[in-house]
Every structure is written in structure tokens, then in C-alpha cells.
């Protein structure tokens, strides 16, 4: 059974604001879905922390395996996320704790076509997965594709009502 534990909250740049650092070259290298206007991620290199007026994001660690349990225990993460009715689910990222395996581990020219064909349609307008099972499947790919950052975790993100 999959459950989600509360990692915490963070202040991030308002996702409605444009981000000029996501030019065509960066999108081609790092995004499976290139039409995402502003990629969102637990990774601050993708979606930076923000000074006021920032938005508040709730972050949760998806627990599926004993490795996920060990990761949570090692970081003192134990409380279940209780989603407030006013929160907007942004989606699920796949990250090693700091780096997104979804939007910050570049895709080589020889692999990106097949990966986009398989995964791009499964990503939402934020460049995140809406379906936790899809995110878990991508995590398995990321663990083998980017071994230097494995093991990856699936991370849920919610925007607190503005």
C-alpha cells in the first residue's frame, strides 16, 4: 500500500511567473515534455525558492518499499500527510533528495526520443506525474538510467491555496 509522509513546507517562486532561464536549449536537454511553461519540481535548481511574495508548497515522501521506509526513518519523517481541501495537487516528482531525475538529469540525444514517446504524455502541465503509479514506474527507470543519483524517491507536491 502506498502512503505519503510529510517532509515539510517550502517557499517557492510563484509558478504563475515566467522563468526566462528555461530557454529552448535547456528544455531540450532536461524536459521530456518541452511545452511545459514553467517546470515545477522539488529540485530548487528547477523551481527556485522564493522571497516574498512566494507560494507555500507542501512536500510529501511517497512510501512504497522498505527502502522508502528506511529513507523516511533516516530523515526522521514519520507523520502522514493530511491534505487540506484548499491545497492544489501539483503532481509527483522523482528525485534523489535534491536533484530531480525527471527534470534535472539531462537526456542524451540517443535516448530522449524514445523516452519522450513513452513518458511525455504522462506528464502534466507542470512537468510532473499526476499518477503515483506512473511516477513509481519512472523512478525504476531513473534508478538505472542515472545510477550516480540512485536511489530516487517519489515526492508529492501540493500548492497551499493562495
Concise description?
This protein has 162 residues and is α+β, with helices and mostly antiparallel strands. The chain is built from 4 helices and 4 strands.
* SSE order: EHEHEHHE
Helix content: 25-40%
The total count of helices amounts to 4
pLDDT average, as an integer? 95
Q: Count the E strands.
A: 4
Number of domains: 1
Overall geometry comes to globular
Distance between the termini: 32 Å
Main sheet overview: 4 strands, antiparallel
**Which structural class do the helices and strands define?**
alpha+beta
Strand order within the widest beta sheet = 1-2-4-3
Strand content: 15-25%
Radius of gyration: 15 Å
Descriptive account of the structure:
The model has no long low-confidence stretch (mean pLDDT 95). The chain has a 4-stranded antiparallel sheet with strand order 1-2-4-3. By secondary structure, it is α+β, with helices and mostly antiparallel strands. It has one domain. The longest helix is centred in the last third of the chain and has 14 residues. The chain starts with a strand and ends with a strand.
Amino acid at each position: 500500500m502506498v502512503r505519503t509522509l510529510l517532509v515539510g513546507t517550502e517557499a517557492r517562486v510563484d509558478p504563475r511567473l515566467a522563468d526566462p532561464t528555461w530557454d529552448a536549449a535547456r528544455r531540450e536537454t532536461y524536459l521530456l515534455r518541452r511545452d511545459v511553461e514553467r517546470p515545477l519540481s522539488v529540485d530548487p535548481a528547477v523551481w527556485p525558492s522564493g522571497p516574498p511574495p512566494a507560494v507555500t508548497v507542501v512536500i510529501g515522501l511517497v512510501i512504497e518499499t522498505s527502502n522508502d521506509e528506511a529513507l523516511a526513518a533516516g530523515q526522521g519523517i514519520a507523520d502522514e500527510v493530511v491534505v487540506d481541501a484548499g491545497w492544489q495537487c501539483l503532481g509527483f516528482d522523482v528525485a534523489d533528495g535534491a536533484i530531480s531525475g525527471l527534470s534535472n538529469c539531462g537526456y542524451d540525444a540517443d535516448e530522449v526520443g524514445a523516452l519522450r514517446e513513452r513518458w511525455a504524455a504522462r506528464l502534466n502541465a507542470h512537468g510532473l506525474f499526476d499518477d503515483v503509479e506512473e511516477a513509481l514506474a519512472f523512478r525504476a527507470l531513473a534508478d538505472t538510467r542515472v545510477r550516480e543519483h540512485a536511489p530516487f524517491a517519489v515526492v508529492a507536491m501540493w500548492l497551499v491555496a493562495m
